[in-house]
């Protein structure tokens, strides 16, 4: 699609076989594509249509559609249809976790448990099918009417011996070894899941900086990710510590096991906004390590 396509909403109709979708408005964009709300002209159904950002062939976009065609889970955004250079997804009703945190602030732990469990359900399913999402973050979690849903497989990779990294990702939520080009692992996603949990509790990202280099340095720096004071010694804090080890050799990698453990933890004694403003990880003055310094 041409680079000015986002400005053409309302005047574009895309077709697949006997179904026609009129593009209505831009919903958002990711690393590889623009997503629009659209309406099926045959039955009036509202959907989300995704187009690659470039009018050239996009292997990453094609890979995303290929993956989606093999997957179906209640906690994943559903692929409904696809055509040449676009894909049709269910339209998720609600708002992203990122939007919720901006508007409402921190979430009580007891409230955050349900959506975080839903994300673990989605990750368990993906990992069982050999897929690493590689971009778990509040922006890609929709708090929908029927529970939280994980979406955007644009950065997803298959787990396989010698599988390369190299896809676009979000440094603020990327495991150190992911940034250093390690082969895809379930531990990428669970590290990010742990960071999202902390962001739910505090209302702010653990890692923040003025540029990508600063975020990169924070992630690959030595030292553990700090926990808010109310989590020190709490079972939830102990659980999160297992997924937030900088060294992947020490990090948990089983989403289903984490799901079971989280179900058993009493969260009522953790206050909303636990530790807000009391911590921020910044060891960004350290030199960048060589790619071989962090392995998985």
Automatic annotation (TrEMBL):
The keyword Transferase applies. Signal peptide: none annotated. Keywords: ATP-binding, Kinase, Nucleotide-binding, Serine/threonine-protein kinase, Transferase. It comes from the Bacteria. GO terms for molecular function: ATP binding; protein serine/threonine kinase activity. ATP binds at residue 50. InterPro entries: Kinase-like_dom_sf (IPR011009), Prot_kinase_dom (IPR000719), Protein_kinase_ATP_BS (IPR017441), Ser/Thr_kinase_AS (IPR008271). This is Protein kinase. It comes from Duganella vulcania.
